[in-house]
Specification:
It is built from 9 helices and 21 strands. It is of the alpha+beta class. It folds into 3 domains: 214 residues, PmbA/TldD superfamily (PmbA/TldD fold, 2-Layer Sandwich); 110 residues, no CATH class; 89 residues, no CATH class. The strands form 2 sheets. Strands 9, 10, 11, 12, 13, 14, 15, 16, 17, 18, 19, 20 and 21 form a 13-stranded mixed β-sheet that branches. Strands 1, 2, 3, 4, 5, 6, 7 and 8 form an 8-stranded mixed β-sheet that branches. A hairpin with a 2-residue loop joins strand 17 and strand 18. It is globular and about 70 Å long. It starts with a helix and ends with a strand.
């Protein structure tokens, strides 16, 4: 689908919303194409191309809001979708916090490759499989997938905000486990986003260390006792706990007044080492975010600075409802700077603790208390990695962990969507 056709659909939808009585209206029309190549059980098993369309409509009328989305962009479907959107607005509840982004403003963002390089996709998988067999013969690659995705979006609202967005990028993912004789580890998964095929996929920063850790779990043992103390979170696991905390900064919990961080702007809620930024358009990330759902251009912002909370993460409705100064829901492409301590040195300073690779459990409660299973994790004893741990329970409080961060690593993990170090903290209960 051409940009012209997508733009025409968006404008026709906006006009139809206004014709049917919307006082303010927002339209987002999108067209996404995929090229996917998959390798399973020692052979290429899938090559496919697909596309999908979507249309999201919002109408404000008499202080009430209606929103409707569907994936058919024909003329009849368009009129029916507009009618449903208006009906939903008519039956909604009035709230003076509903609004659309101010304009007029025109934005254009074109990023990344404009078409799939299928030969490069094939060569990347072929080399990855061959190199893995040579360097990590214990690793069984159950599936390896490379996908190219290109999205085109036309965003319009009745205040004259327009955004033309085109974004292309690749994803690489693999499902694997380790096996030697009768011994096998549990399944593991990892992936990354990229735009440049010049990748060293078996470096420690990519899949190399993950493969080594998986092989170590061929001899995993239970912890066998209970202990509360220090823990080091691997970067991808730390990302999970950051998201647990960031949920308390969003519109939902703040408006409902269930946030642990309510009215905490400017207060110290973590250690001096807790520094976190959102960099949605930083070129270090292969999959940038250009606008919010409200049609406001994203920008870099600091969320935590030396442990001090600097901002909420509010959309336009949340900003108005809480009477804050600006929209700030740009918590994407998280950046935490590398620290001054090597991971080996961090481990060396722990008499007994745990290195946590992945967390499997539900959302923490409203106070931040969590409980779940630490997977792909290791016991630290006398400053050394003692053994791989199997199905070990951990619990604690997210915000207590933030307060007790005492070291961050000089090594960082970067997968095209985040940039994070290893993080050492205290107060994790292990059993």
């Amino acid at each position: 689908m051409s940009e012209k056709n997508l733009s025409t659909i968006a404008r026709e939808s906006l006009n139809e919303l206004k014709n049917q009585g919307a006082e303010h209206a927002v339209v987002q029309a999108s067209y996404t194409t995929f090229d996917e190549l998959q390798y399973e059980n020692d052979s290429f098993t899938l090559l496919r191309s697909a596309d999908e369309t979507s249309l999201s409509l919002t109408a404000l009328k008499d202080g009430k809001k209606g929103a409707f989305s569907q994936n058919q962009l024909g003329a009849e479907e368009l009129k029916a979708s507009v009618a449903k959107t208006i009906d939903m607005a008519n039956s909604g509840k009035a709230d003076d916090a509903y609004a659309i982004a101010d304009g007029p403003q025109k934005m254009k963002f074109h990023y990344g490759p404009e078409s799939a390089d299928r030969n490069a996709m094939r060569d990347l998988i072929t080399k990855f499989v061959a190199d893995t067999k040579e360097k990590f013969p214990e690793i069984g690659l159950r599936s390896v997938t490379v996908t190219y995705q290109q999205g085109k979006t036309q965003f319009l609202n009745s205040n004259g905000v327009e955004a033309d967005i085109q974004k292309g990028y690749y994803t690489f993912s693999t499902l694997f486990n380790a096996q030697v004789g009768e011994k096998s580890s549990s399944m593991n998964y990892d992936g990354l986003c990229f735009v440049d095929f010049d990748l060293d996929l078996l470096s420690d920063e990519k899949f190399g260390k993950t493969f080594k850790d998986t092989i170590s779990h061929l001899s995993a043992e239970k912890y066998g006792k209970s202990h509360t103390g220090k823990a080091i979170f691997m970067p991808s696991c730390w990302a999970t706990f950051l998201q647990f905390a960031l949920a308390h900064l969003g519109t939902g919990q703040l408006v409902a007044k269930t946030s642990r961080l309510q009215d905490k702007i400017g207060e110290k809620i973590g250690s001096e080492l807790l520094h976190l930024e959102s960099r949605p358009q930083d070129p270090m990330f292969a999959n940038p975010n250009f606008i919010t759902g409200d049609g406001i251009e994203t920008k870099n912002q600091t969320i935590f600075e030396k442990g001090v909370l600097k901002t909420y993460l509010l959309d336009l409705y949340g900003k108005n409802k809480l009477k804050e100064k600006e929209v700030s829901n740009f918590a994407s492409r998280l950046f935490m700077p590398k620290g001054d301590t090597a991971l080996e040195k961090m481990i060396d300073g722990i008499d007994e603790g745990i290195l946590i690779g992945r967390f499997s459990g539900g959302q923490p409660n409203s106070n931040g208390d969590f409980s779940g299973i630490a997977k792909n994790s290791f016991l630290i004893k006398n400053g050394k990695i003692d053994k791989a741990l199997s199905e070990t329970m951990i619990s604690g409080n997210v915000f207590d962990l933030f307060e007790k961060v005492y070291a961050t690593s000089s090594e960082v993990y970067e997968n095209g969507t985040c940039h994070l170090p290893y993080v050492a903290t205290d107060g994790v209960s292990v059993s």
